[in-house]
Structures are given as structure tokens and as C-alpha cells.
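Researcher: Go.
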Amino acid sequence: MTTTGRRALLVAGATAGATALVGCDSSSDGGTRQPTAAEREAERVARAEAALRLRAVTSARGLLERYDAVLAAHPALAPRLTPLRRSVAAHAKALGEGGTTVIPATATASPSAPPSAGASAGASPAPAATTRATAAPAPVPADPRAALKELAAAARAASDRHTAALLTAPPEYARLLASVAAAGAAHAYLLTEGARA
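Model: Structure:
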């Protein structure tokens, strides 16, 4: 290659690089871009689903904590409660699969850019969930029958919350919620009426 050919190649490369830099600089607009209407809608739907998942998982974990409290207070109930508790633990795990994290549509923003109001709103339920998880559980009645009745009421309430969430859940998650809600209703029955049979 001649010196003239190399020089032309270098000039062409430098020109292309400068054009790319200018293009990046002018389109970056300070490191952020405005999301499209479709991206904003997708982010809104994702946030709603993440919030729904967080509520469902929090409800299932609250019920699991209640099982643990009753088992700690009444170890003699372990043969009866352990299989149900295992089921509730599996429900909590399944409801949490898929995560509750939402990546904002403005994800192209620079790392130094402050989070948008939408991003902070999506993150706000997490501290509440942490607070609930660290809160002391309600005292368990000393009478085993009363403890079972209270546990059945907690299972019924969790089942009702899952059923109510069906209205806004995406189809696949709605099927999971329906299954967990049905299991919760069965647990409530087994904890009270089923024991009499």
C-alpha cells in the first residue's frame, strides 16, 4: 500500500470516527432520551405486575410466618401443620419467581442521572415488605384449637387476597394465583372443618 493510500485510509477512518462521535453527542441529549408512548405503557404494565407480585409474595410469606409461629407455640401440631406449611412455602417461592424488578424505559440514562419519579415509585414497596418481614408476628393463642382457628382465618384471608388479585394479573400469573388461592381455601378447610371429619 502506498503512503497516499494509507493516508486516505487514515483520513477516512478519522472522518468516520468524528462523525460517530458527533452523532453520539448530538443524540445523547445529556445521556437521556424520552421513552416512546409504547415504552411508557410497557413500563407501567411491568410496574403494576411487579407490585402485584410483591403483594402476593408478601401475603404468602406472612402466612408462612404465621405457620412458623403456631408450630413454635404448639409443637404437638407439627404432624398436622408441617405438610401444609411446606405447601405454603412452595407457594411463596412460586409467586416470587419472575421477580419484582422493573427496568425503567429511560434505562439509557447516564449512571449519574437521578432516578425518575416512576423509578422511585416502583421501588417504594420494597421497604414496606422488609418492614413486614422483620415485624414481630402476632401472639399465638395458648389453646391449640384457637391457634388452628386463627391460622385458618389467616389462610382464608390470604386466599381472598390472591383471588382479588386475579382481576389485574396477567394470564399466566393469574393461573398461578388461582391455584394458590384454591390451595389456601383447602388449607382453611383442613385446619378447621376437616379436623372434625
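Model: The CA atoms of residues 31 and 111 lie 9 Å apart.
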